[in-house]
Amino acid sequence: MYVGTYTNGQSEGIYQLQFDTDTGELSDLRLVATIENPSFIAYSPNKKYLYATDEGNSTVSSFKIEDNGMLKFINTVKSFGGAPCHISINQKGNKAVVSNYVGGNMALYDINEDGSLNQASQVFNHNTPEQKSHAHSAQFINNELFVADLGRNAMYLYEKGGNNNYKLKDSSIIKMTENAGPRHFTLTKDGKFIYVINEYASTVTASKKVGNKFELINHFSTLSTDYKGNNACADIHLSNDERFLYGSNRGENSIAVFKRDIETGVLEKIQNMPVHGDWPRNFTLDPTGKFLLVANKKSSNISIFNIDTSSGKLSFLYDIKVPNPVCLLF
């Protein structure tokens, strides 16, 4: 497992850990690439290359994954916007999309066969004179590109044209509540349901695809009923069988666990599990789907939880110290 970090503390870049999928044990922490603020990292589909954003310098870097797990630097390109906070790669491995939080735009890149990044081929600016954009995440799904814009409080949809370029199809595919702040999102494997976690509203917005449109199912709170403090949601993931949904709360410092009706897409909250740390910016499920790992930024630890695959509920196993972790990648 690779770990992206913020380097304004003890961290020096991207780290690697070994993970035992039988016991859930993390071990052998080591620095594999020295880079400033690799706050989000992503694989190529064949897992031969790794890509990282650098929020401090507004750049994106590519690395070749060596046989021993070390990362060999390939090249760096500009993100064309301030504070790039998310990167994802398309299924073919020849396109990358970077979301620039401060820049309020997202940039598209062609990826060469050697894993290197070309300069941005397209940059989409969501800012208007009336409203500041904060593009926070984007994902390629077949020939479409979904973008969560926290500042504009909207989910954008772009479509690939015949010239391999993308064009805007819809600037508001889901009806959000006022000032919800969509941050990250996940889709079911068949693309029929989308779940958006909202940083400001502390909710998950669920929608179902009907024809060429997404129809709202509902908004579901991520917080315990008795929690009264400040909160900012961060990350969201479906279980491997898509029967459960998980979201992270920064403030309540918990993982919200939802049971999901696979037919209707409706969510029912069944647990708020403390993360045993502070500020869970990102989390992931291991490849087996038996464990959930949480990157706690402010407390500099990764917490490991067992997943009851029948109920979806979490139970805390242990935690390990890692400097300023903010992104986990298996």
Structure description:
The chain is mostly beta strands and 330 residues long. The model has no long low-confidence stretch (mean pLDDT 98). It has a domain at 178-321: YVTN repeat-like/Quinoprotein amine dehydrogenase (Methylamine Dehydrogenase, Chain H, 7 Propeller). Strands 3-2-1-28 form a four-stranded antiparallel sheet, with no helix packed on it. Strands 4-5-6-7 form a four-stranded antiparallel sheet, with no helix packed on it. A four-stranded antiparallel sheet has the order 8-9-10-11, with no helix packed on it. The protein contains no helices and 28 strands. The chain has strands at residues 2-5, 13-19, 26-34, 38-43, 49-54, 59-65, 71-78, 84-89, 95-100, 105-110, 122-125, 135-141, 144-149, 154-160, 166-170, 182-187, 193-198, 203-210, 213-221, 232-238, 244-250, 254-260, 267-274, 280-285, 291-296, 301-307, 314-321, 325-329. The chain is globular, with a radius of gyration of 19 Å. Keywords: Carbohydrate metabolism, Glucose metabolism. InterPro entries: Cycloisomerase_2, Haem_d1_sf, Lactonase_7-beta_prop, WD40/YVTN_repeat-like_dom_sf. This is Lactonase family protein.
What layout of secondary structure does this protein have?
Layout: E1 2-5, E2 13-19, E3 26-34, E4 38-43, E5 49-54, E6 59-65, E7 71-78, E8 84-89, E9 95-100, E10 105-110, E11 122-125, E12 135-141, E13 144-149, E14 154-160, E15 166-170, E16 182-187, E17 193-198, E18 203-210, E19 213-221, E20 232-238, E21 244-250, E22 254-260, E23 267-274, E24 280-285, E25 291-296, E26 301-307, E27 314-321, E28 325-329
Antiparallel strand pairs: 1-2, 1-28, 2-3, 4-5, 5-6, 6-7, 8-9, 9-10, 10-11, 12-13, 13-14, 14-15, 16-17, 17-18, 18-19, 20-21, 21-22, 22-23, 24-25, 25-26, 26-27
